[in-house]
Design goal:
The protein is α+β, with helices and mostly antiparallel strands. It has a domain of about 90 residues: Lactate dehydrogenase/glycoside hydrolase, family 4, C-terminal (L-2-Hydroxyisocaproate Dehydrogenase, Chain A, domain 2). The chain is about 45% helix and about 15% strand. Strands 1-2 form a two-stranded parallel sheet. Strands 3-4 form a two-stranded antiparallel ribbon. Helix 1 packs parallel to helix 2 and helix 3 runs antiparallel to helix 4. The longest helix has 19 residues.
């Protein structure tokens, strides 16, 4: 099985170095796996170049939200995945993914063995895809769908998260998206960090455009 960090780390490091040198004020959105390792890697590169802005480095966790919503809808008759949103916090890796079915919108009742089964299904979904591909790749099609899920009315490349960032940069308020962030550098992050026993990085909903 390929080691995605080893495979992607050098590429991401070089990209981060170029960003720091050429466009240090850019907003960076990371979708390459493993997101929970590559986001800190980029942060360290930017820190070494003295251009790190925690408010502009995002680990995209859309895929976990899409999966949790789809799996829950499949388990509950009469629901479409497009009508359901399941928040996912923690981090974008098997050990850290925490789908919050109890906070779904609209509210759904999932308990007992069904809850345990759905939680495991979300947490191990990427491993199942990698196993199905015999270790030759990861869930690239799922990531493309997640990108499409977050698209507006244009082309696939117009990811909803990227569009949301652009709107926030133009001053639009109240835009909330899930992201894997460096907590000490974002509004409210230090409080959340203390409640998490000092974790530096965590996936949670954030309001884009907030600077204080």
């Amino acid at each position: 099985m390929i080691d995605l960090f080893v495979f992607n780390a050098d590429i991401i490091r070089d990209l981060a170095t170029s960003i720091a040198d050429i466009c240090p004020n850019a907003s960076i959105m990371v979708i390459s796996n493993p997101v929970n390792s590559l986001v800190p890697l980029i942060a360290e590169v930017l820190k070494s170049k003295k251009v790190f802005n925690p408010k502009k480095l995002f680990g995209i966790t859309t895929l976990d939200v899409v999966r949790a919503s789809a799996f829950a809808a499949e388990a509950i008759s009469g629901l479409s995945p497009s009508d359901l949103v399941i928040p996912v916090v923690g981090g974008p890796s098997t050990e850290t993914i925490i789908p919050l079915f109890s906070q779904s919108k609209p509210a759904v009742k999932i308990e007992g063995e069904k809850l345990r089964s759905l939680t495991a299904h979300v947490k191990f979904a990427s491993d199942e895809v990698i196993k199905a591909k015999a270790g030759t790749g990861s869930a690239t099609l799922c990531m493309a769908y997640a990108a499409f899920k977050y698209a507006d009315v244009c082309f696939l490349v117009n990811f909803r998260f990227a569009d949301a960032v652009l709107k926030a940069l133009k001053g639009e308020k109240g835009i909330v998206q899930p992201s894997y962030m460096y907590l000490p550098g974002i509004p409210g992050g230090t409080t959340l960090q203390h409640s998490l026993n000092g974790l530096d990085y965590f996936s949670t909903n954030i309001e884009l455009g907030v600077t204080t």
